[in-house]
Amino acid sequence: MKVILKADVKGLGKKGELVNASDGYARNFLLPKNLAAPADAQNVTEMKNAAASKQFKYDTEKAEAQANADRLKDQVLEFKAKAGAGGNMFGSVTSKDIAQKIRSDYNIGVDKRKISVSDIKAFGTYNATVKLFQGVETTVKVKVTEE
Fold it and tell me: In this model, does residue 85 exceed pLDDT 80?
C-alpha cells in the first residue's frame, strides 16, 4: 500500500515522502497513529504542491540574498573610534557593530553570528565575510579611523 508519511518513521522514510508499506503495517500501525495518510489523488496532489511551495520559497530567499550580496560586495563600512594618548584605540569593533551598521546603512538584516571577523582593536582597514544565506556570502571592508 502506498502512503504519504506525516512524520519520520524509522526504517521506512522521512516526513513528506511517498513510500510503499505493507498493507497490514499501514492499516494497523501507520494510519491509526496518524503517522501516514493513504496515497490517494488528493493527498498526492497536496504533497506535490507543498514541495513546490517549499522550493519556490527557498529559491526566492536565495535570489534575494544574492541581490543583497551584490549590493554589499566590496562596500566600505566606516567606523570612528576614540584614541588614547599612545594612539591606541579604546574598545573594539565587533561583528555586532558591523551587523548594526549594515542594517542601518543598507537596510539588510544580518545576524551577528553570520559575520566572520576577529575583534578589531586597532585602526586600519579589515575584511569581513558576511554569510547571507546557505551558499551566499560576500566580503565587506571595515575601515576604522580616529575621531
Answer: no
The pLDDT tens digits of the residues spanning 21-32 come to 999 999 999 999
Domain 67-146: top CATH class: alpha beta
Please answer whether residues 76 and 102 qualify as being in contact, where contact means their C-beta atoms are separated by less than 8 angstroms.
no
In terms of CATH, what superfamily is 2-65? Ribosomal protein L9, N-terminal domain (3.40.5.10)
Mean pLDDT along residues 67-83: 91
Taking the domains of the chain in order of start, what are their residue ranges? 2-65, 67-146
What distance in Å separates the CA atoms of residue 3 and residue 22, rounded to the nearest whole number? 10
Compute the average pLDDT of residues 51-79: 93
CA pair distance 36, 133, nearest whole angstrom: 33
